[in-house]
Amino acid sequence: MKITKSVAVALAATASLTLVGPASHVSAAPQRPKSCSVPPQTPPEPRPTTVDVVGQAYHCLFENYYSGPVLDSRAVLLPAFAALTQELQRRGLDQPDAAMPALTGRRHADWAAFKGVLEKVVAKLPAEAAQAAAKATIEGMVKSLNDNHARWRPTRESRTKLLGFRTSGFQGPGSVDPAGKAPLFVNQILPGGPAEKAGIKLGDEIVSIDGVPPYINGVPLSSVILGLQDGPKDTVTLKLRRPSTGATFTSELTRALVPGGPPQIESRLLPGDVAYVKLPGFFPEAADKVLAAIEALRKGRTLRGVVLDLRNNGGGSPKEVRRLVSAWTHNKIISYLCTVQGDCTPTRTDDSVELLRLPLVALTDRGCASACDDFSSMVKDLRLGTLVGTRTAGVVSGPAVPWVLDDGSTLTLPQRHEIAANKEIINTVGVAPDHQAPVSSADLSAGRDPGLAKALSVLR
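-> C-alpha cells emitted (460 positions)
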C-alpha cells in the first residue's frame, strides 16, 4: 500500500521516538481477539458496534485482505483515528485526550495502544455518539486501503429508497467519475419508480439538485451528484432541461422503494439478423440466460452476430463472466489472480460451455464496472470481438470475500488482486473501446443510440 509523503513523514517521526526493535507483526504479548467469520445463511441480528468490533475489523484486514501480509498497522490506524476525531468534531464532542497514541509498526502492540485511547474516548460519549464514533473508525480503516472492492456495510441494510433513475457522471455504480463532464443527464429509468411517475425521460439534463448545479466550471460536485443515489433527504427538487424540446421544468421527487425482483435480461432481433441482448449485471445464472436468449433468436434463421449491451452493468459474479466468455473461446487464460508478493494463478475458460461461433460486439460505458470490466478486457485481449462505446469504469481490484463481525456488519475484502489476460492492470484504468461511440443527452432525448448504430455497422 502506498503512503502519502505527509503521512510517511509523520509515521517516521513517530517510529524514531518509539521503535524498540525491527517492525514486526508479532507482539510481545499477543492477545488474539475473536476473528471475523464467514457469513451465515441467515443474517445475524444487529448488535452495538463496540471497541471489540473495531478490533475485529482491524485484525480481519490483516488476516484476509490482499496486502495483509505487508500491511503497515500505522497506515491503517492513523486514518482510522483521523476519521474518529472528525466525527467527534462534527458532533461538537471533541476531547482534549483524543490524541493519537505512539505506534511502532507492530500489529498487535499498535492495536493495544490504539484500543486504550479509543476506549477512553468512547466511554465519555452518549450512546448514539459512541456508536457513530466506532463506525467512523471502522470506515476510516477500510478507506485507508484505497481499494474499490473493500467495503464495510453496517448492520443489515434494508432496501434503499430510490429516486428511480440513474445518470451519467458515474464511474461504476457508486462513485462519481472524475472524467465526467456536464451536462449530467438521465440514462436509465427504473420501472415503477418516482422518476417514471413524474414523467422524467431518458436524456433529460439535470440543471440543479436542490438548487445546486452538479458541475461548477467543469468540476463535479461529488456530494451533490452522489445524493441522487442515496442522499440524506427524502425529497429532492430537480431542475431539468429536455433536449428534444428545449423545455426547462422542475420536478420534486420523493424517494420510494422501487418495485424489484430478480434481474432480467432484454433480448430482441435487430435488422440484418443480429441478436441483441442487454445484460444489466453478472447475476447468478446470467450467462445461461444470455446464451438461451441468443439460441431462441437463432431458431429459424442464421444469425450474423451478437450485440451484447453492457452499458450500466455494475458487475457481479466472476463465475458468470467465465461461463459467458467461454461461449466465444476455449482453452485460454482469461485473467490472473495475484498475491501481494506477485504470485499469480491463471483463470481459464470453462470449456464445458458450447461455443456460439458468432461475431460479437460489446457495448460499454463508464457504468460497466467490476465483472463487466473483466469481461470487456477478455473480449479485447483475446480478440473475441469488438468493443464499442466508451472506456469502462476500471473498478476491478479483485473479487471480494464477505466477512461478518459481531455487530452483524459485513466487511468485504479482496484476497487477491486481478490482472487481465495480457497481464495488464485494468483497475483504476478501465478498458478502452475499439470504436468510440458516446451517447449524449440529445441522442437519448431524440431516441438515438450511436453505440448500437456503430455496432451494426461493425457487424455489416
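The chain is about 30% helix and 20% strand.
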